[in-house]
Amino acid sequence: MLRLLRYSHIFSSVVREFLDVSLLREATTLPLTVSQFHLLKLIALDGLRQVGEAAGFLGVSPPAATKNIDKLERLGLVVRGPPTGDRRATPLTASAKGRHLVRQYEELKTARVSPILSSYPPETIRGLTDLLEQFSVSLLGLERSNDGFCLRCAAYVEEECAVGRARGGCPYQLTREAHSGHGRSAHT
Q1: Which domain, by its residues, includes 91?
Q2: What is the pLDDT along the chain (188 residues), one digit of tens a residue?
Q3: Closest of 31, 20, 15 to residue 106, by C-alpha
C-alpha cells in the first residue's frame, strides 16, 4: 500500500509540474497561474459565462474570481460582453488570443505525451486509465463534503465523467445544460 501511495503522489506531482506548469510556461510567457489557465480553458470551451460561475468553479469568492478574470482580460485572453449593470453578470468569452493559447497548449501537450503513450500497448493504457478512474473516485469518496466546485479534471471535460457521477454531476456540464435551457440547475 505504501508503494501505491508513493507512486500516486509521484504521478500527481509529475502531472502537475510537467503537464500543467512546465507546458504552460512553454506555451506562453504570459504571467498566468495554472488556475487562471484552467479558468481560461473553461471560458474558451464556452462553459463559463459569468463571474459568479467562475467563482464557483475556482472555489473562491466572487471578488477573487473577478480579480482573476480582470487579469485574463488585461492580458487580452478574455473579453467581457456588454455590461448588464452587475459586473458578476457580465458575459465572458475567450478572445482569439485566449483560444489560440488554449489550442497551442493542447497541441504541445499532445506532441509531448503521444510518444510516451504510443510506447505502451492500447490495453495497458486502457487498464491504467480504468484503474486511475476507480482509484480517484474511491479517494474522492473519502471527502467529507461534495459541496463546491469540482475542477478535479483541470478542465478535461467529458460527458461521462466518473468523478462527476460520484459528485452528483459535473459542475461544468450542469452549467452548460443550464445555459442551453435544459437539464438541472448549475448549482451542486
Answers
A1: 2-149
A2: 888 888 888 888 888 888 889 999 999 999 999 888 988 988 887 656 677 777 777 777 888 888 989 999 999 999 987 766 665 567 788 999 999 999 999 999 999 999 999 999 999 999 998 998 888 778 777 765 555 445 555 555 566 666 666 666 665 665 556 555 544 333 33
A3: 20
Q: Per the domain annotation, does 188 fall within a domain?
A: no
Nearest to 57 by CA among 148, 137, 147: 148
What would the DSSP string read from start to end of 29-57? -S---HHHHHHHHHHHTT---SHHHHHHH
DSSP 20: I
Give the chain's domain count.
1
- Domain holding 112: CATH number? 1.10.10.10
Report pTM: 0.72
In a domain, 181, yes or no: no
Asked if the structure places residue 17 within a domain, the reply is: yes
